[in-house]
Amino acid sequence: MTFAATILTLYPEMFPGPLGVSLAGRALAEGRWSCEAVNIRDSATDKHRSVDDTPAGGGAGMVLRADVVAAALDAAADGRPVVALTPRGAPLTQARVRSLASGPGVTLLCGRFEGFDERLFDARAIEQVSIGDYVLSGGEMGALALLDACIRLLPGVMGATSSGVDESFETGLLEYPHYTRPAEWEGRAIPEVLRSGDHARIAAWRKQQAETDTRLRRPDLWERHEGARVQSPSGAQAKKDDR
Hints:
Number of domains: 2
Distance between the termini: 51 Å
Strand order of the largest sheet: 2-1-6-5-7
Number of strands: 9
CATH topology of the largest domain: Alpha/beta knot
Radius of gyration: 22 Å
Shape: elongated
Mean pLDDT: 93
Largest sheet: 5 strands, parallel
CATH class of the largest domain: Alpha Beta
Number of helices: 8
Strand content: 15-25%
Helix content: 25-40%
């Protein structure tokens, strides 16, 4: 099954963009996924091909019209999940990426200007997603990020089947730090445990490093991880035994 991506955008020339090279580009050439960029402006009905208008109630900027965007979406609809890239959306997670990657594909809506007329989300089944707490010029960069995250998980895209498992966010933690040759660089040596050949010690060290880095760098992730651990049967027992 080919993972099909349809992107509704005012700038179709931005796709596949960087997804046309490296792993994603090779997978595209091999037919593991497909990419169709649709210009929202093609669904406009006036002679100026208008897609936006001034905000109701006043204010700066322009707003994407619900009627035009809905027409573009309806023309592209084929049963796949529809995701709008917007800073007002829920944070994109690795779990959601993995869920999307396991399906038939996704239709992506790329916002511009001040965003979408809210009635669009009332009238159509659209999942709103954000890739971070910052604002970009449009949803295209978010769409590229989401697609890259999905494509690398498709069967046969990454060289090793384990490459996508032992990574940041897959277990609720940041990934442990990595090292490679030379063994010493600018007076800094690879940690001895990684050169020991003792796989049990290495696994324990990596787990400890992942937990420490997550606790210090992403306390929000650590809190969720600890909450999930305590709620699990084994975690609850461990908590009881600690007392």
